Amino acid sequence: MQAEGRVRYHRDMDSADLKERAERLIQEALKEQMAKRYENAIVLYKDSIAACPTPEAHTFLGWTYSYLDRLDEAIDECRQAIALDPEFGNPYNDIGSYLMKQGKLQEAIGWLEKAKSAPRYEPRHYPYLNLARVYLAMGRFEDAGREYSQAQFLQQELFPQPAPAEPRAEESVN
């Protein structure tokens, strides 16, 4: 009976309302996830997907599964995110990360490379850091250094440190 009411409720909502509801559910799920209430987060992400499937909801659901070591399910959610928006880079990086956890380093490289070239991805330096970790684990130190340098460059470009303030005249007089 409750599911039937949900279906009717969704039919009565227009797509903008459903998208707004889905976004609210994602925000609630993120709060639950940060509080380590993973099962609650999973329910909320699934409700968000039911209201309006988004690549973000699938990616975050996968992220939640990863905290529970449900890596195959996490990868599946990321694949669904990619199917919805192939330009969204986060699920590529996440698949690479989950494959790393499974010890599938060679397989992870392709996914991390795709994350690096994705048009829509934040934070940009993550796949470079993950590739550096993969290459270190494989003993490919030159490749690891290159990826780490690129990550460092991107991080500095994204989060520049403010220049030190000039001393005021009254502070520089003895």
How would the blueprint of this fold be written?
Layout: H1 2-12, H2 15-34, H3 38-51, H4 55-67, H5 71-84, H6 90-101, H7 105-117, H8 126-137, H9 141-158, H10 169-172
Write up this protein.
The chain is an all-alpha fold and 174 residues long. It has a domain at 11-105: Alpha Horseshoe (Serine Threonine Protein Phosphatase 5, Tetratricopeptide repeat), CATH 1.25.40. Helices cover 75% and strands 0% of the residues. It has helices at 2-12, 15-34, 38-51, 55-67, 71-84, 90-101, 105-117, 126-137, 141-158, 169-172. Helix 2 runs antiparallel to helix 3 (38-51) and helix 4 (55-67) runs antiparallel to helix 5 (71-84).
N-to-C order of helices and strands: HHHHHHHHHH
The end-to-end span amounts to 81 Å
Strand composition percent: under 5%
Major sheet, described briefly? none
In terms of per-residue confidence, which ranges show pLDDT below 50 for 5 or more consecutive residues? Answer: 1-10
Q: Tell me the overall shape.
A: globular
Percent of residues in helices comes to over 70%
- Give the name of the CATH architecture of one domain: Alpha Horseshoe
CATH hierarchy, class of one domain:
Mainly Alpha
Helix count equals: 10
Q: What structural class should be given to the helix and strand makeup?
A: mainly alpha
Q: State Rg.
A: 21 Å
